[in-house]
Design brief:
It contains one helix and eleven strands; from the N terminus they run αβββββββββββ. By secondary structure, it is α+β, with helices and mostly antiparallel strands. A four-stranded antiparallel β-sheet has the order 2-3-4-9, with no helix packed on it. A four-stranded antiparallel β-sheet has the order 5-6-7-8, with no helix packed on it. Strands 1-11-10 form a three-stranded antiparallel β-sheet, with no helix packed on it. Strand 7 (118-119) and strand 8 (125-127) form a beta hairpin.
Length: 171
């Protein structure tokens, strides 16, 4: 039996070709990896466009009795008129995982059906796991009419008196 030897030139051409092929494929993979990593790192650095306020008119101040809580479906929020006459617009989203909360008129509190967080009328956490009070929507009272910015939600860490809006300055 005789084994034919390939010429040295043909063997080196095949090795050279395969070496160059693997190097080329490695470079393509490296470029794809670096491009993906760069896209990931840059994706969150762009300027975020602030949404413009979108006010909806909810009606005259006198339509909301002191101590009342009114669901405003269009803005997915609750409008509270506290006993002292101050207004507060609260998001319907629980600050734990964003489930829609409901007002329980009998118990006078907001309840989250997902994980049983509860909030008082001003949005303060009564029962965890919610980590902070309900978010607040800005509202404006002009000429006795109440309007709420449904696009803007203010994240709150605590409840402060200046978060309330009054039809007439107290004093």
């Amino acid at each position: 039996m005789s084994i034919e030897k390939q010429p040295q030139n043909q063997t080196s051409n095949r090795r050279t070709f395969l070496s160059r092929l693997w190097i080329g494929l490695g470079l393509v993979a490296l470029v794809q990896f670096l491009g993906g990593a760069l896209a990931f790192l840059v994706s969150g650095t762009g300027k975020k466009v602030a949404s413009k306020p979108l006010f909806i008119e909810v009606g005259p101040v006198d339509n909301f009795a002191p101590g009342s809580v009114t669901l405003i479906r269009q803005g997915e929020l609750y409008l509270n008129r506290l006993e002292d006459g101050g207004f507060l617009a609260l998001s319907r989203k629980c600050t734990h995982l964003g489930c829609a909360i409901a007002w329980d008129e009998e118990q006078k509190l907001f309840a989250c059906p997902c994980h049983a967080s509860t909030f008082d009328k001003s949005g303060r956490v009564l029962k965890a796991p919610a980590p902070r009070p309900l978010d607040q929507h800005p509202l404006v009272i002009e000429n006795g009419n109440l309007s709420i910015d449904i696009e803007t939600r203010r994240r709150r860490q605590s409840i402060k008196p200046e978060q309330l809006t009054y039809a007439v300055k107290k004093g």
